[in-house]
Amino acid sequence: MQAETEILIIGGGLAGLTAALHLNKLGLNVTLIEKDTYPHHKVCGEYISNEVLPYFEWLGLDIENLAPTFISDLLFTSNLGKSIQTKLPLGGFGLSRYTIDHYLYTELIRRKVNVIHNRVVEINFANNQFTVTTANNSFVAAYVIGAYGKRSSIDIKLNRSFINKQSPYLAVKAHYKADFPNNLVSLHNFEGGYCGVSKVENDRLNICYLANYERFKKYKNLLAFQENVLYKNSYLKAIFENATSLFDVPLTIGQISFEGKEPVHNHILMIGDTAGLIHPLCGNGMAMAIHSAKIVSALLHQKIEGQMSSRAALEKSYTAHWNREFKSRLKMGRVLSSLLSNNKFESLAMNALIKMPFLLHKIIKQTHGKPIRISL
Asked: What 8-state DSSP symbol labels residue 319?
């Protein structure tokens, strides 16, 4: 027997959960399908720009009750031992995905939103509606939002162009006990990658890095890779050597690619990493994922309320909004990555930033958004 819903969200990460809360607040019939149960850890930098706070307030979310770490400064260090520190224009906060995703999920349950724990195996669009099949059920929906993350078997089924291209990166994350400033998020460049470090709730230090997979394969294990590659950045070496891991083993994700993705594919409205993998040098992927949920939810509401003439108009509008909000930020992340992967360019860039620190402030503004507000 098929279940019917107005809007079906595939994936219960940060973007999918936020979209479900938004759509539910607008009184729309929404179902969310997530393959995993909560709470669970995810590989993520776990820093969120304060740009999301007005939106969270509108959604009725009380983040302060989760005891986040409040962050005001950014430290950037180079592989060559240079560093620069600056104030963040808006500031931000640190919360683990374990905590914030679980909180959003419990809010969905409290608000009686339909959440299904299952794995989606197929998505079909015909006669202006979707049929979504899971392992033991199927759903009919007028609209589908894709929020299932960086890459998935769903992408293979949908024959998305990026999925067949080589994916050169590996991501690693763990929590640690360490002496580290609460107000600081730091980004450390090393040969072939970047490492973000900042506190989350309960005085835990999140260390998450992105590394070139081919380079990683030259070493026997994560520890050997860290000691031979990451430790060449003296700041990273000091952090790791004075930290005690709170995980039995770090979390890892392979096959990460920064190839371009479509915000709309086969009439599915993609959000978060599913729409375009958010480069770590953009600085606040969590806020961008949340913002994409706001954009798609507001546009869907307009369409359902008759303020848009067709599905094609909805898809065109969403693509335009996505590009306007995120395209230049993603491009800046790629440009910075290209510059910092070359030792000569890295040295020149760091010298310029140290001599003209206002440039770093300008770069941060270009990779962050403005406060997300709702206008009804």
From this structure: H
Question: What single-letter amino acid sits at 178?
Answer: A
Mean pLDDT of the chain: 89
Structural tokens at position 110: 């409290």
155: part of which helix (H) or strand (E)?
helix 153-158
> What pLDDT score was predicted for residue 343?
62
Closest CA to 132 of 161, 160, 163, 158: 158
State the Cα angle at 241 between 239 and 247, rounded to 5°.
85
Whole-angstrom distance, CA of residue 209 vs CA of residue 195:
4
Query: Please, what are the domains in the chain?
Result: 2-367 (3.50.50.60)
3-state secondary structure of 51: helix
Contact criterion met (CB below 8 Å) for 362 and 352: no
Q: What is the pLDDT of residue 42?
A: 94
Q: Tell me the pLDDT tens digit for each residue of 74-108.
A: 998 988 888 888 898 889 999 999 999 999 999 99
Task: For residue 94, give Cα distances in angstroms to 12, 46, 182, 192, 248.
Answer: 20, 6, 9, 26, 22
Distance in angstroms (rounded) separating the CA atoms of residues 289 and 372: 12
